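[step 3/7] fold_predict: job queued, chain A
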Amino acid sequence: MRIDCLETPALLVDRDALDRNMERMRLILEKSGVALRPHYKSHKSTAIAHLQIQAGAKGICCAKVSEAEDLAMAGVEDILVANQVVEKSRIARLAWLAKGCRIAVCVDQAQNIRDLEQAAAFADSRIRCLVEYEVGMGRCGVETPEAFADLARQVMDCPHLEFEGIQAYAGHLSHEPDGEIRRQESEKIEIRLRQLLDYLKQEGILVKEVSGASTATAALRGPDTVYTEVQAGSYLLMDSAYGQMGLEFEHSLTMLATVVSARPDLVVTDAGAKCMGADHGEILCPQLPGAAVNLSEEHSAFSFSNHGLQPGDKVRLIPGHCCTTMNLNDVFYFVREERVLDCLPVTSRGKSQ
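[step 4/7] structure written:
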């Protein structure tokens, strides 16, 4: 089927660009010897998760237990919930999943560790734990080596839990536009993590994994990095926010829209905030470079003189945020040039529990 025959709005993923992005990330991390654990929240598609594993990813990380359930049921066997799971009902679901695959989760509180142990004991399963270290995000995590070591020992004392290492996600650098600031701040984090590792070694605590970083900082990992795995997600699809940062990846994700109204200085399409995320960046129309956009629920209106477009014409738009865009759509179309290759569900759309 030709792309221009699709009813719009229609979410497109260029399969060749997607494959090139996977290969670029593989080459970037190959230089540092760091493994890739892609973040599922960016695409929420078990089909894409399997493509990433086939391309060399060690496993998948996700944000929610409901996402982990979808991944496990689709046959993904190494899953990190890169978040704290504290509600006992969700902990029970996590412990049950851990009977059938390798499940890890982040912790930063003693009570959470006790609850995880109780649920894993009841389910007769084993849950891996990464203690989260606060590296500037201002969100979760302990702040001192002493507090980290205390929680690590508590995990190690639990017969149904296994201490894996450190969660050190520097999400505050993910959209820092100044490359030099990203580099300097990343180096500071590496120094802090080395200090933590030295302290843990003195305390006799073995660290298997240091997990974190992101799409924007993956290339900053050198051969001497302390990180063992990178939790990158947006590299695969890209969006307008990441597109401004001079990264090596290309836009594989676009929204096909139809022009529904046009004036000499205005183009209005049928794709609005209900199908495209704009929480990190503005919606862009490559056919109308530099156009100011007014985004509403059902429309995106671009101010652009002498555009030459007419109602019924199709245009491709670049979402402001790929992760929220995927979560707003039921399906996406794999495409190559002007042909549709496949229509696939956004498996975990709306799953935020």
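[step 5/7] annotate
The CA atoms of residues 289 and 333 lie 25 Å apart.
The chain has a mean pLDDT of 96.
exit 0
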